[in-house]
Amino acid sequence: MVTEGLPELVLQAEALLLEVGAEMGRTEEEMRPFIHKIVEQNWLETRESLAALTNEQWKTLGIPLRLETALRARLAAAAAAAAPAAAAAAPAAAAPAAAPAAAAAAEGSSSERGGAATPDAGVASARPGSRERKEAIRVLQQLLLGVLLQPAAAKKRKVGRHPSAVRVLLSVGFVEEMNGGEQCLVLRAAYLQRLVLCYRLLAEVAAPLGVLLPPLPQGYFDPFSRFACCSTLPPSAAEARAAEAREIEQQIKEREKLLATGGGAAPPPLDVQVYTLSEMRQRDREQQQQQQQQQQQQQDDFHDGGGSAGYFTPADIARIKDTV
């Protein structure tokens, strides 16, 4: 296991756990169970021991996925930052044949660790042959970015000529399968958070080599960022809202046209029974009105003092009584 030139790996794992927990908003008391399990029960007291864990060994620890991801990302960032310094401190007069041997030794060391994405990427950036390293990083960048942009789209990429890239893909969820007699890497379930972390760490490894990776697509949460903001909607959401607004506007115009023209259809057929009942009620109301008018007219004529011959006044009635 190669540890030369990485002095930060010998720091205590307890301090690393407390630091990562503080970034997640966890207190020291909340991190004590994980410190007890990792440091005291499993004797993983240094960062070097944590960096050497395989995927299966990480699973046996039984810690939360977010804590595991943050720890592995922090270890990978430390290894990637220390790798260029270790390469610069190497003797300039080394034999040319020593470079392939060192690369093979480093590759064997990382494969013994068991396929973690970040140690492989960090060791790849420290090896000679920067052109091949840059090509492998670009291939990984295109593949990861393609999955993040369209997680459900099935695409094929050739990455077999880069063993380090294959190990990185295996660590983020790809599995080896046979397809048409050819061995392929298939991503059955796209764990977006894991892909985002790998892309972020890949960008950190690519920076010392002069390879600039485009930023993450909008809408993905970056746990290493100090702030996050989103002032615009994705193009698909904006287009969906515009289409909905156009549809509602068209419906309103159609309803206004129906109200203005009456619908342009023939009136519904009349029900004879309903029409007859309505006519009878109307006639009853007219007869009642006529009767009320006649009664009112009779009362007015009776109290009218015009001296009509058809009516007796109170004086006439008194004279008739006297005569009788």
Automatic annotation (TrEMBL):
Record's GO cellular component terms: nucleus
Any one biological process term the GO annotation gives: regulation of gene expression
Ranges for region Disordered: 110-130, 279-316
Domain of life (superkingdom): Eukaryota
Compositional bias per record (Low complexity), positions renumbered to this chain: 288-299
Listed GO MF terms: sequence-specific DNA binding
Record protein name field: PUB domain-containing protein
Native species: Eimeria mitis
